[in-house]
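Worked example (supplementary).
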Amino acid sequence: MPIRILVAGGTFDKEYDELGGRLFFKDTHVEEMLRLGRSRVAVAVQTVMMMDSLEMTDSDRRTLLEQCRRAPEKRIVITHGTDTMVETARVLQDGVLDKTIVLTGAMVPYAFGSSDGLFNLGSALSFVQVLPTGVYLAMNGKYFPSGQVRKNKKLGVFETLDSSS
Amino acid sequence: MPIRILVAGGTFDKEYDELGGRLFFKDTHVEEMLRLGRSRVAVAVQTVMMMDSLEMTDSDRRTLLEQCRRAPEKRIVITHGTDTMVETARVLQDGVLDKTIVLTGAMVPYAFGSSDGLFNLGSALSFVQVLPTGVYLAMNGKYFPSGQVRKNKKLGVFETLDSSS
Amino acid sequence: MPIRILVAGGTFDKEYDELGGRLFFKDTHVEEMLRLGRSRVAVAVQTVMMMDSLEMTDSDRRTLLEQCRRAPEKRIVITHGTDTMVETARVLQDGVLDKTIVLTGAMVPYAFGSSDGLFNLGSALSFVQVLPTGVYLAMNGKYFPSGQVRKNKKLGVFETLDSSS
Amino acid sequence: MPIRILVAGGTFDKEYDELGGRLFFKDTHVEEMLRLGRSRVAVAVQTVMMMDSLEMTDSDRRTLLEQCRRAPEKRIVITHGTDTMVETARVLQDGVLDKTIVLTGAMVPYAFGSSDGLFNLGSALSFVQVLPTGVYLAMNGKYFPSGQVRKNKKLGVFETLDSSS
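After joint prediction of all chains, the assembly is encoded as:
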């Protein structure tokens, strides 16, 4: 059965508006990234929202939860802003019981040469195929079960809650 | 325990020699790629050889096998040319029993903008953390147990042996 | 005699702040771009300011004018934001009489894969070597004498004042 | 009047054949590069040949000369392999008297992230607009009149004939 990819925006998909000189959201880059990665994994890509995760509300999180429930697939990747990825994961964990869900994102927009996005997408898509039922974050090459992870905003990395680094 | 990354060369690491106008091997890009991916996975990177996998001999494969055995780590990623990745996997499968080994590579050199390398490295590094003991290939976003995969040289993709696509 | 390159910031040099999720200025990319272009033109690169040209004041423009006057070189390239490049050119035209000055910039930051910056720098550095005394803009592969050009902010291109395109 | 761009191949246009693992020629990247540079210069792009300039024969050079003569434009840019660019320039110089012709190329294929191609194209397109009648090479940010330049194959740069560097 294919894997569902739910797009929620985040740094991943920020683009440069050359008329306004600002970063903005247009379309997701996920399909282009899968082509670049020569991915042959059967996926259904669905854009749910395109937003900075700092602006995400409880209502937005319920929408994501609802889409996870409705999806016929048992395995779901969500591309999401990193700032509140941990919060969204918790909402999903409380509400979806029988699926493997992996959230991922990027520290640098895909459109930049120096983006971590392609690495993270390869990572999330791989973890989702083999991890047991549950909600996880895939960042920095690792996976973290929801509830056991935080974003270290000073370093810009994810770490387990009892981590001291 | 950290993950061992054994570098065997392949398209992954081909560079452009601007004086000679040819592709050649110099140093591995694996460490640079891990930095780009903001990887925080503990790894030990070891260059075993830098070669086109079409030129790899039985002796080279035994060297790789020997390095897999000697490595203190239980989980190993090998970056390898795609043309004979299947053959090397078989040699490792016959010789290493108690480790998880994932071979990966690239269809386009990392130094090209259009490379699948970063996606594949993220994928392989993720699979190796969660797959049980055994030898696998990680390409095209999927993993294939050794012995059940071939490279479709016409399409430039990997497929399971009974696949018809 | 070498060419002076005065750096005034602009889109050219915007970088992505991965902790804050915003574009910002750090160091100029001009030297890195000249290396990439394998430039062998003798240049002296001098950072005068690093700012969005929308925030540039009359005082900033006088500073640039002063640096143009003080420079021992007869040929000067200025990297500058595109939004007020035309205004700065006019100030320089009124104040510097005996030098060839070429302003250039970028519509997309150099750090993005899709930047026009490298093309524009190659263009400006070439025009400055052959154009007679005067102040010019080099954008979109063309040169425009100061006073005869405007930025079409809707299209994001430069055009001669009597242009109707 | 527009500028004619004659494409003769060279490193500029080398691509990576991911099935064969080799560099090869397919289509020119010149139009894509002009788009990236947001060029608004009126040009007519014409592919004359796609070859490594080391394999170029006298007959190929006569073909280029013929195309320069036939072109209605007075200003012509030729993208060409760097190895024999000097030889082709000499043939053109002997045969075309009343046009400005600028040859350029690249040390690294455009498809590589680290290419000098975009810089060189911006440079050549600029020089051709302002230089007087004659045949020139535009490389390394400079222009060299034909007959006064050689490629230093050890350093991979162009230098004037009396240069000692």
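Two points are worth noting when inspecting this output. Residues 71 and 94 of chain B are 17 Å apart (CA to CA). Chain B has four helices and ten strands.
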